[in-house]
Design goal:
mainly alpha; 4% strand; membrane; transmembrane; transmembrane helix
């Protein structure tokens, strides 16, 4: 017998679907970072550092390291979407990581060695939106589950 808090086998909850979608987008972005044309100034793609002149969609400064981070983050989202708690953790803690990265991008000198990923202004504000969006998805898509769990233990 399944209840509202226990999905049927083979079905995904909304938080699992969200984590899967976010993970898939990160995986796609990581792959697109290696595609000339989608990545402008591809010949200036370096492994890491603010010297990398490659721009994903002509807007976001990237490097090989930046692309690898996107690929790993995407794979983690897909893997963690298999369970409700994994999906929630991926979205919540991944969102927090992106908010920390946003703050880091705001305070670091973009022309310093500390900008090793690299990050630019467009990256910073995208990280803010990602962080807020991921945390919101984690909290909003699991709030009834948390409420049901508390009610069951009362």
């Amino acid at each position: 017998m399944t209840t509202a808090s226990t999905p049927r086998a083979g079905t995904r909850t909304n938080v699992q679907k969200a984590a899967l979608a976010v993970g898939a987008v990160f995986l796609l972005v990581g792959l697109l970072g290696f595609v000339p044309g989608i990545t402008s100034q591809y010949d200036q793609l370096s492994f890491a550092g603010h010297e990398s002149g490659a721009m994903l969609l002509g807007l976001f400064q990237i490097s090989v390291l930046h692309n690898i981070v996107h690929l790993l983050f995407g794979a983690a989202g897909i893997a963690m979407s298999r369970t409700i708690s994994g999906a929630r953790s991926y979205l919540l803690y991944g969102g927090i990581i992106y908010l920390v990265l946003w703050i880091y991008g705001l305070v670091i000198d973009q022309n310093s060695d500390g900008n090793f990923v690299p990050l630019n202004g467009a990256d910073n504000w995208l990280h803010f939106l990602l962080g807020v969006g991921m945390v919101a998805l984690a909290l909003l898509l699991t709030r009834n589950r948390d409420h049901n769990r508390k009610a069951a233990h009362a």
